[in-house]
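Hi support team,

I'm filing this because I wasn't sure whether my run with flavin mononucleotide finished correctly. The job status page said complete, but I'd like someone to confirm that the output block is well-formed before I use it downstream. Pasting the exact inputs I used:
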Amino acid sequence: MLKAFSLAVDADGSLRTTALTAAAEGLPLPVRTSAALGSFDGVHRGHQRVIENAIAAARRLGEASAVICFDPHPQTYFLSRSGDAVTPFRLMSLAQQLRAFEALGVDYALVLRFDEHLSALTAEAFTRIILRDHLHLSHVSCGFDFRFGAKGTGTAEALAGFGAEMDFTTFITACQSDETGHKLSSSAVRDALDSGNPQLAGHVLGRAQAFEGVVTRGDQIGRQIGFPTANIELGDYLRPKYGVYVTRTHLADGRVLGSVTNFGKRPTVGGLSERFETHIFGLDHEIYDQTIEVELLHYIRPEQKFPSFDALKEQIAKDAETAKAYFA
Ligand SMILES: Cc1cc2nc3c(=O)[nH]c(=O)nc-3n(C[C@H](O)[C@H](O)[C@H](O)COP(=O)(O)O)c2cc1C
Ligand SMILES: Nc1ncnc2c1ncn2[C@@H]1O[C@H](COP(=O)(O)OP(=O)(O)O)[C@@H](O)[C@H]1O
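And here is everything the job wrote out:
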């Protein structure tokens, strides 16, 4: 079980620790660890290499492995302070990120609260106060393009330089590519989702892109046309291309069911705001207020304005058949 902690740095440099998972409850922070350091949004196959390198170093040194990441995402923090309208860009929630770390076999997740104190630390102060004095790291693994410290002046090479002075070793993972030479990056995932290519997003991620949220109440039109849809808010998540998708839904009770999802504004019914709504096959009871996770598997078609409600209903039935055939 992953032992996850939230760590907040106070103005005087002291650290406040809170357990984020049951396995961390009542435990102290680890004494010596080999850690992967980064934002790791998506935990894609490139990130996975960085984390696997930290785990390999931990095994060599006979100590615990850790991932050190940030919450909120540093970019979210800076954008929200700038006062500009923020275009949602996240590929994962913190809960999904922790599950991805656990799946890789990491012992600890140390989630640094990204706030005014942490963001003000220079690269040198971050390394000395956080990595050395508080976390006593013996080894740090990061990606070639990792940036840290106030104004992002710290680079992976600078981190290696600090390590030589502060008694920890470093490993910088080079840019990872797939079998065909395509760079494995968060931007590649975002571009794929933006262009309606969830398979490519899943190829880069090493698992399907998934949106997790609490089921909210809609206008209750869905059930009248025989296709009730569970709606979730996308919040900070990057918005995929509008349209209809084959999806797979993880329910709160542990069941995993095939499903079909529409993401868009529902022009046929005069919808004004975006909705992410999923009709789940084989479900026949209410799941309002429950958390579901919806994986995008295949893009079926763009969202359309139909001349009538009946025409829309007919098309939704065809979409459901397409999705069922995908799972057959
Ligand atoms: C598989 C599927 C495909 C859909 N495609 C469209 C579409 O192309 N155009 C559209 O206006 N609405 C589309 N919708 C949205 C319906 O208009 C919506 O589900 C209906 O209004 C019910 O809304 P409710 O969940 O608020 O009750 C689709 C819904 C589903 C489940
Ligand atoms: N097969 C199903 N797929 C999705 N939701 C279902 C299904 N069967 C029952 N439900 C429930 O019905 C609700 C959706 O019904 P709907 O009429 O579309 O209402 P709403 O407009 O509130 O989404 C879902 O939130 C869920 O609680």
